[in-house]
Prior knowledge:
MetI-like fold, 14 helices, about 70% helix, globular
Amino acid sequence: MQKIFMHLFLLIGVVISIGPFYWMLVGATNPSGDVLAFPPKLIPGDYLLENLRNLSNSIDIVKAVTNSSIIAIVFVVVSLFICSAAGYAFAKFKFKGSNLIFASFLLAMMIPYQATIIPLFQIFGSIDWINTYQAIILPQICYPFAIFLIRQNMQGIPDSLIEAARIDGAGEFFIFFKIALPTMKPALAAVGIFLFTHQWNNFMWPLIVMTTQENYTLPVALSTLAGLNSIDYGQLMLGTAISVIPVMAVFLILQKHFISGILGGSIKE
């Protein structure tokens, strides 16, 4: 009886979780008037191509997806390298003030992002980087949570292994790239999911720093679909579905590493 209730509870949870996604996909295949119809229409329609045509006429969806993809991929690659190097240094090097510096990174997570927008805009404006990719990529390249998670996982690497490599004459770069990073694949995958999702869904800063539609990221471009007088919910649902697909794809590809990466720091030598 207990297993029956457990499975029933999980089934209800699955329906609640998948329901909004299914409604979004149904809305993407129906005209705008049917999206808010009552009772709600739960059967996919045949309006997908028309919604796609309207979406393409309203915004340059291909350019927006390209902009978001370039920014997110470059951000993840560069941020993973910098954050993993910082995590390795915090975990395996004991130097004066290391705990204070690490605590400052944790305190940085408590600063509201909105409080940094004006200083960031002034900085990038002074070096003429407004309306550029690097203006979106650089501000959060040293992501504090990523450094924290990687440091916790790095502490699980035995110090004896690092010391043995040093005794054998291995340099720190060799140890980092050939010993530390290969054992960190689950953690890097978990952090990569967080970083990609964060940058792909980033809205406020790109909205402020990007001044031309040609450079709009996907979330910013989709926000222009909400007009003052009317909203075409069909194309809005389709655009939202397109924006969700890359995030789901990244998670499905890396999901087997996700849990082990999150829990990796719980086991230490």
